[in-house]
Design goal:
The chain is about 35% helix and about 15% strand. The protein is α/β, with parallel strands linked by helices and about 300 residues long.
Amino acid sequence: ILCHYVVYPASIVAVLWLLCFLKLKWLAACLVVLYIPYFFDGSQYKYGKSWPALRDHKFWRFLQVYFPTSTVKTSDLDPRRQYIFAWVPHGAMVVSRTTVFGGVWHSMFPGVQFPLTLGASPMFWFPGCREICLWLSAIDASRATAKRILSKGYNMNVYPGGSEEIFLTRRGEHKVLLSKRKGFVRLALEHGCDLVPIYVFGEQDLYNVVSFPKPLRHFFLKYLKFPLVLILGRFGTLIPDAVPLTSVFGEAIPVDKVENPTEEQINDLHARYVSALRALFDKHKKAHGAEDKALVVL
């Protein structure tokens, strides 16, 4: 999956090389000098650098037609409330986030602020990749960053399974890593954010995922923050297969603010979230070709 990160800096290097080849070294040097302060400004640890015009542009609809993508809203959301949107499964590349681009979000939830999305730290280590992520409303997935944006009233997207859930990605299977993932629930309680369960049908079917031996995977994920997997999409590339992709938004779970929640309160809200997620999956699985499947929570 490292290839996904390095595609962007490789493109930048190619452009700089071309400028040098065209004897425009002065321009290449100026661009690098101007970019360095921008790269190290720490935006991913603050409030990001969202570019709504890019995120909501109609060109995303060409990508959405490719799969095709769709969204299902089971209830309205109150624009006066603050929300944490908890998406599962993570899948190989988190393609699900594109289902609400191109103005889809604002059509679904008028007046509800577009959420900032917690993203894996390595996404912000590579030039180009960092900028794309920031422009599309992603920020670093640290607890400190999450607390900072929630304290300022932002809504937040979170993928509770994180990068580790990538290893569960198998076509036709519906496995999610949730049993011990309770940090997002604690945040919801501490900030009084209603919790919205979201299940994405099709996310597991976009790529073939080839895993490496567990000790090696563990080392890379723990120390280098990289999920060591080989992902193969259409024609063996990073292009996802054209599989219907549907994000189903469940009803918001109301949450009262508790500054110092107890383990019992955290476990109770976590159980309510998992129960709501199972009910959401079971209610909609027939319409998405998973009638004989069960949601496995690990």
